[in-house]
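hey m, so remember when u said the tokens were messed up on ur end? i reran from scratch. heres the input so u can diff it against urs
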Amino acid sequence: MTRVKLELLQEELAGLQLAAGYLQYSMERCRNLVGQEALPPEQLERLESLTSRFARLADLLVQRVFRLVDEIELVGGGSILDRIYRAEKRGWANAAELINIRELRNLIAHEYATEKMAEIYSAVALLSPVLLETVPKVVEYTETMIRKYPA
């Protein structure tokens, strides 16, 4: 069973790195847009893509990779907060920042009021670097973990 989970983890890592690349690309394209008002539709579309990619990467990280690592290390179970605190113990990121990322992800997923979008875009611009800095740490940790198990 562990071998199957390790193979799944490798697939998730590939998706995680791809999603991180897409978020980085969107951040570069939106660097000068955050905080501006009365943007044309094409620039708003860039910002919406940025928030979507942020939410996707946050989900992949917390819901899929964190959970899978916990299962492989036999510490699965518990809440999302438990997963976040274990991620902090592994040295991947600060728990408070991960909690903020998770809360922002939830806000993105459930926010339909256009008057709040400027705040969301600013928060995404602020937290995206934190999210992106976490990915290589997770990849390094998990690749080391994968090498520990026999093929």
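this time it looks ok to me. The chain has one domain: 2-148. if urs says something different then somethings off w ur setup not the seq
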